[in-house]
Protein backbone atom coordinates (compact mmCIF):
# COMPACT_ATOMS: atom_id res chain seq x y z
CA UNK A 1 0.00 0.00 0.00
CA UNK A 2 1.44 3.36 -0.98
CA UNK A 3 1.69 6.25 1.44
CA UNK A 4 -0.73 9.10 1.06
CA UNK A 5 0.76 12.48 0.37
CA UNK A 6 -0.11 16.06 1.33
CA UNK A 7 -2.20 16.49 -1.81
CA UNK A 8 -4.39 13.51 -0.93
CA UNK A 9 -4.93 14.79 2.60
CA UNK A 10 -5.60 18.34 1.38
CA UNK A 11 -8.18 17.12 -1.15
CA UNK A 12 -9.84 14.99 1.53
CA UNK A 13 -10.12 17.98 3.87
CA UNK A 14 -11.45 20.20 1.09
CA UNK A 15 -13.96 17.55 0.00
CA UNK A 16 -15.18 16.96 3.55
CA UNK A 17 -15.55 20.65 4.38
CA UNK A 18 -17.09 21.95 1.14
CA UNK A 19 -19.08 18.76 0.57
CA UNK A 20 -20.33 18.70 4.16
CA UNK A 21 -21.49 22.32 4.08
CA UNK A 22 -23.19 21.81 0.71
CA UNK A 23 -24.90 18.61 1.88
CA UNK A 24 -26.20 20.28 5.05
CA UNK A 25 -27.42 23.28 3.07
CA UNK A 26 -29.24 21.03 0.61
CA UNK A 27 -30.95 19.03 3.36
CA UNK A 28 -32.37 22.28 4.69
CA UNK A 29 -34.18 22.65 1.36
CA UNK A 30 -35.16 19.01 0.92
CA UNK A 31 -36.08 17.92 4.45
CA UNK A 32 -36.22 21.04 6.61
CA UNK A 33 -33.22 19.83 8.63
CA UNK A 34 -30.88 22.24 10.45
CA UNK A 35 -33.52 24.96 10.66
CA UNK A 36 -34.47 24.79 6.99
CA UNK A 37 -37.95 25.12 5.53
CA UNK A 38 -38.20 21.92 3.50
CA UNK A 39 -39.55 21.70 -0.03
CA UNK A 40 -42.78 23.58 0.73
CA UNK A 41 -41.21 26.63 2.41
CA UNK A 42 -38.19 26.70 0.13
CA UNK A 43 -40.48 26.37 -2.89
CA UNK A 44 -42.45 29.42 -1.78
CA UNK A 45 -39.21 31.34 -1.33
CA UNK A 46 -37.94 30.23 -4.75
CA UNK A 47 -41.17 31.50 -6.34
CA UNK A 48 -40.75 34.85 -4.59
CA UNK A 49 -37.25 35.37 -6.03
CA UNK A 50 -38.18 34.36 -9.57
CA UNK A 51 -37.26 30.67 -9.74
CA UNK A 52 -40.43 29.00 -11.04
CA UNK A 53 -42.01 26.62 -10.47
CA UNK A 54 -40.94 26.98 -6.86
CA UNK A 55 -41.17 23.37 -5.65
CA UNK A 56 -39.34 22.08 -8.71
CA UNK A 57 -36.66 24.73 -8.25
CA UNK A 58 -36.34 23.92 -4.55
CA UNK A 59 -36.02 20.21 -5.31
CA UNK A 60 -33.41 20.78 -8.03
CA UNK A 61 -31.37 23.11 -5.82
CA UNK A 62 -31.66 20.76 -2.84
CA UNK A 63 -30.56 17.74 -4.88
CA UNK A 64 -27.64 19.63 -6.44
CA UNK A 65 -26.46 20.76 -3.02
CA UNK A 66 -27.24 17.70 -0.88
CA UNK A 67 -26.44 15.14 -3.57
CA UNK A 68 -23.44 16.96 -4.98
CA UNK A 69 -22.13 17.74 -1.51
CA UNK A 70 -22.50 14.18 -0.26
CA UNK A 71 -20.80 12.76 -3.34
CA UNK A 72 -17.99 15.32 -3.04
CA UNK A 73 -17.43 14.45 0.61
CA UNK A 74 -17.24 10.76 -0.32
CA UNK A 75 -15.09 11.43 -3.38
CA UNK A 76 -17.54 9.59 -5.62
CA UNK A 77 -18.46 10.67 -9.16
CA UNK A 78 -16.40 13.77 -8.44
CA UNK A 79 -16.80 15.49 -11.86
CA UNK A 80 -20.59 15.21 -11.76
CA UNK A 81 -20.81 16.02 -8.04
CA UNK A 82 -18.62 19.11 -8.34
CA UNK A 83 -20.42 20.36 -11.44
CA UNK A 84 -23.87 19.88 -9.89
CA UNK A 85 -22.90 21.68 -6.69
CA UNK A 86 -21.21 24.48 -8.64
CA UNK A 87 -24.35 24.94 -10.74
CA UNK A 88 -26.52 25.15 -7.65
CA UNK A 89 -24.21 27.73 -6.12
CA UNK A 90 -24.19 29.77 -9.34
CA UNK A 91 -27.97 30.00 -9.05
CA UNK A 92 -27.62 31.13 -5.43
CA UNK A 93 -24.94 33.66 -6.36
CA UNK A 94 -27.29 35.18 -8.95
CA UNK A 95 -29.81 35.85 -6.19
CA UNK A 96 -27.23 37.47 -3.91
CA UNK A 97 -25.27 39.39 -6.59
CA UNK A 98 -27.31 42.62 -6.30
CA UNK A 99 -26.15 42.85 -2.67
CA UNK A 100 -22.46 42.94 -3.58
CA UNK A 101 -19.74 40.48 -2.68
CA UNK A 102 -19.61 40.22 1.10
CA UNK A 103 -21.97 37.89 2.97
CA UNK A 104 -22.46 40.39 5.80
CA UNK A 105 -24.32 42.58 3.29
CA UNK A 106 -26.25 39.62 1.85
CA UNK A 107 -23.77 39.21 -0.99
CA UNK A 108 -22.63 36.21 -2.98
CA UNK A 109 -19.38 35.53 -1.09
CA UNK A 110 -20.43 32.17 0.40
CA UNK A 111 -22.16 30.88 -2.73
CA UNK A 112 -19.15 31.81 -4.87
CA UNK A 113 -16.69 30.20 -2.47
CA UNK A 114 -18.62 26.94 -2.27
CA UNK A 115 -19.28 26.90 -6.02
CA UNK A 116 -15.64 27.50 -6.91
CA UNK A 117 -14.48 24.89 -4.39
CA UNK A 118 -16.88 22.36 -5.94
CA UNK A 119 -15.76 23.22 -9.48
CA UNK A 120 -12.12 23.05 -8.39
CA UNK A 121 -12.65 19.58 -6.95
CA UNK A 122 -14.35 18.49 -10.17
CA UNK A 123 -11.24 19.59 -12.09
CA UNK A 124 -8.54 18.45 -9.61
CA UNK A 125 -10.17 15.12 -8.80
CA UNK A 126 -10.81 13.56 -5.41
CA UNK A 127 -7.34 12.27 -4.53
CA UNK A 128 -6.47 8.77 -3.39
CA UNK A 129 -8.48 8.97 -0.15
CA UNK A 130 -11.77 8.64 -2.03
CA UNK A 131 -14.34 6.17 -3.26
CA UNK A 132 -13.51 7.13 -6.84
CA UNK A 133 -9.93 5.95 -6.30
CA UNK A 134 -11.08 2.79 -4.52
CA UNK A 135 -13.39 1.97 -7.45
CA UNK A 136 -10.70 2.53 -10.07
CA UNK A 137 -12.09 5.93 -11.11
CA UNK A 138 -15.07 4.30 -12.80
CA UNK A 139 -17.09 7.54 -12.33
CA UNK A 140 -14.12 9.91 -12.56
CA UNK A 141 -12.81 9.78 -16.11
CA UNK A 142 -11.00 12.67 -17.75
CA UNK A 143 -13.70 13.23 -20.37
CA UNK A 144 -16.33 13.52 -17.63
CA UNK A 145 -14.87 16.77 -16.27
CA UNK A 146 -15.47 19.04 -19.29
CA UNK A 147 -18.71 17.23 -20.13
CA UNK A 148 -20.19 17.67 -16.65
CA UNK A 149 -19.02 21.27 -16.29
CA UNK A 150 -20.24 22.26 -19.78
CA UNK A 151 -23.65 20.61 -19.33
CA UNK A 152 -24.10 22.18 -15.92
CA UNK A 153 -23.01 25.60 -17.20
CA UNK A 154 -25.54 25.40 -20.04
CA UNK A 155 -28.44 24.38 -17.79
CA UNK A 156 -27.48 26.94 -15.15
CA UNK A 157 -27.31 29.70 -17.76
CA UNK A 158 -30.79 28.77 -19.00
CA UNK A 159 -32.31 28.66 -15.51
CA UNK A 160 -30.65 31.85 -14.25
CA UNK A 161 -31.41 33.60 -17.56
CA UNK A 162 -35.11 32.64 -17.35
CA UNK A 163 -35.23 33.94 -13.79
CA UNK A 164 -33.65 37.22 -14.84
CA UNK A 165 -36.12 37.64 -17.72
CA UNK A 166 -38.99 37.12 -15.26
CA UNK A 167 -37.55 39.76 -12.95
CA UNK A 168 -36.97 42.22 -15.81
CA UNK A 169 -40.52 42.18 -17.15
CA UNK A 170 -43.78 42.73 -15.31
CA UNK A 171 -46.10 39.78 -15.04
CA UNK A 172 -48.62 39.53 -17.85
CA UNK A 173 -51.41 38.90 -15.36
CA UNK A 174 -50.62 42.13 -13.55
CA UNK A 175 -50.26 44.44 -16.56
CA UNK A 176 -53.00 45.29 -19.05
CA UNK A 177 -51.64 48.62 -20.35
CA UNK A 178 -54.61 50.44 -18.85
CA UNK A 179 -57.13 48.10 -20.46
CA UNK A 180 -59.56 45.78 -18.78
CA UNK A 181 -59.11 42.05 -19.33
CA UNK A 182 -61.32 40.53 -22.02
CA UNK A 183 -62.64 37.79 -19.76
CA UNK A 184 -63.38 37.70 -16.07
CA UNK A 185 -62.18 34.69 -14.14
Automatic annotation (TrEMBL):
<dbReference type="InterPro" id="IPR051907">
    <property type="entry name" value="DoxX-like_oxidoreductase"/>
</dbReference>
<comment type="similarity">
    <text>Belongs to the DoxX family.</text>
</comment>
<feature type="signal peptide">
    <location>
        <begin position="1"/>
        <end position="23"/>
    </location>
</feature>
<keyword id="KW-0472">Membrane</keyword>
<dbReference type="InterPro" id="IPR032808">
    <property type="entry name" value="DoxX"/>
</dbReference>
<keyword id="KW-1133">Transmembrane helix</keyword>
<keyword id="KW-0732">Signal</keyword>
<dbReference type="Pfam" id="PF07681">
    <property type="entry name" value="DoxX"/>
</dbReference>
<keyword id="KW-1003">Cell membrane</keyword>
<keyword id="KW-0812">Transmembrane</keyword>
<feature type="transmembrane region" description="Helical">
    <location>
        <begin position="143"/>
        <end position="162"/>
    </location>
</feature>
<protein>
    <submittedName>
        <fullName>DoxX family membrane protein</fullName>
    </submittedName>
</protein>
Amino acid sequence: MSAYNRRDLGLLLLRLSAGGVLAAHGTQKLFGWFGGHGIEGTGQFMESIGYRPGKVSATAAGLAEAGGGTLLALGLATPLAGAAAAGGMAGAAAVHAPNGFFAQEGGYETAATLGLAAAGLAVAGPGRLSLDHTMGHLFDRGWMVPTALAATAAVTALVVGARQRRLDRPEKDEQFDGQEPLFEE
